[in-house]
Design a protein that fits this description.
The protein is mostly beta strands. The protein is built from three helices and 32 strands. Strands 7, 10, 11, 14, 15, 16, 17, 18, 19, 20, 21, 22, 23 and 24 form a 14-stranded antiparallel sheet that branches. A four-stranded antiparallel sheet has the order 25-26-27-30, with no helix packed on it. A four-stranded antiparallel sheet has the order 29-28-31-32, with no helix packed on it.
């Protein structure tokens, strides 16, 4: 028989990053429960009366002196495991509304921010808007729109999406103004009337994704632009639209190529969680993958929610490039990358250029766009409302075209890219 003594008392010690903590207390308020087993224990947890350290106590066997019994309390620890971006003291929205943040490396001498990289030596010519990190002397636009995926649903693992160039449409309903020609008996009748206009709220932009699905789909493993140093999966910003509990992955023409449900707390390649390494400083790891049955598993193979994994996939800076690295939580806290954020009023737009698949680049300037690498191609520049402001075939590989301030769409031989003109 084993006697489990549950004490109603105050903690004397709390272990960080454990769902349950052990407290050592006075044996005053004791409530005892007995659990029965046919197995015999060979050791027990005891307390050194001099140091109050936990020790491996010996059960009397007639040969060794038994260590005195110690009473413990097993009490649930509700301290947060993940960062939640609702701290008003840090300038975040206490109601969990999306915010604009800049993510930086904690252990660098100067703050080095994560940003969208299409043109550095690590990304140039690959036709992708990869996640990058600033190097010495860089001054990138690092602001990101932190969109909520699964947050205010009584979860210990809030999940977010990181977005650039967000185009936000607020949900709205314009009710039918019934006239003498027809009337509505109930509110439901009015809602069903074709004269009632319902606008569904949405956020459209370039969403950060773990590119593991693209890695798996690639048939030339030794020529895989989605992999870094042959071992690490890269991350990139791709066009997508967030509507209610679904993220629609889009092609450059705006057509849906995949849709991902967000109404569950499972890890996904489009959502990220920010695992604490230090509550006092708010420092965290960026978590993208988890474990199943004690083993790291890719998100495509995950079948259940797995919170606070010991084995997972975290963002690491590998030879200058942000990647997903698989390791234990303890290893990640030492060998991956520790991050923090700062709220900013900067616009989460492109870093002045967007990579096209054939190395064409579109650069935003003051009152203009600069199109490079598109000699002989037809270029159409239009406002976000569809008004065409330029339509011409370029005569050189570096052309400057006047454009109004704001978001404009630049189409290069049918491929469209959005940039923010100053």
């Amino acid at each position: 028989n084993y006697n489990l003594i549950l004490l109603n008392c105050v903690f004397s010690k709390i272990f960080r990053n454990v769902a349950f903590a052990v407290g050592l207390c006075k044996a005053a308020n004791v409530v005892a429960k007995t659990y029965t087993s046919n197995k015999y224990a060979s050791a027990k947890v005891s307390v050194d009366n001099n140091t109050l350290a936990l020790v491996n106590g010996v059960i009397a066997d007639g040969k060794t002196e038994e260590v005195a019994n110690s009473a413990f309390a097993v009490i649930k620890d509700d301290s947060p495991l993940y960062r939640r971006f609702n701290n008003a003291e840090l300038g975040e929205n206490a109601n969990d509304a999306p915010s604009i943040q800049k993510f930086y490396r904690v252990n660098s001498t100067n703050r080095e921010y994560l940003y969208e990289d299409a043109n550095s030596k690590y990304s140039e010519g690959l036709g992708m808007n990869f996640l990058g990190v600033e190097g010495k002397g860089d001054n990138a636009n690092a602001a990101m729109y932190v969109d909520t995926a699964y947050v205010n649903r009584d979860t210990r693992m809030p999940q977010y999406m990181l977005v650039l160039n967000p185009q936000i449409v607020k949900a709205d309903t314009i009710w039918c103004n019934a006239t003498s020609t027809h009337k509505h008996e109930t509110l439901a009748d009015s809602l069903a009337c074709p004269h009632t206009t319902i606008t569904e709220g949405s956020v459209t932009g370039r969403y950060l994704v773990n590119l593991q699905d693209s890695v798996d789909a690639n048939t030339t493993p030794y020529d895989n632009k989605f992999v870094w140093n042959r071992d690490y999966t890269r991350l990139a910003f791709v066009p997508a639209k967030h509507v209610a509990d679904t993220l629609f992955i889009l092609d450059e023409a705006g057509n849906t190529v995949n849709k991902i449900r967000l109404d569950n707390n499972m890890h996904k390649n489009v959502v990220f969680s920010f695992r604490y390494v230090d509550h006092n400083t708010e420092n965290f790891l960026i978590e993208s993958e988890t474990e199943q049955n004690g083993v790291n598993v890719k998100n495509s193979a995950l079948t259940a929610v797995s919170i606070a994994p010991n084995n997972g996939g975290w963002v690491k800076i590998q030879n200058g490039v942000p990647v997903i690295a698989n390791m234990t939580y303890s290893e990640a806290a030492l060998d991956a990358e520790i991050f923090n954020t700062e709220v900013t009023e900067e616009a989460p737009t492109a870093n002045e250029s967007i990579a096209a698949n054939d190395a064409v680049s579109v650069v935003a300037a003051d009152g203009a766009v600069i199109v490079k690498g598109a000699e002989g191609k037809n270029v159409v520049v239009s406002t976000i409302l569809g008004k065409v402001v330029a339509n011409e075939v370029l005569n050189s590989d570096n052309e400057t075209i006047a454009a109004p301030a704001g978001i404009v769409v630049v189409s290069v031989d049918g491929e469209s890219f959005k940039v923010a003109v100053k």
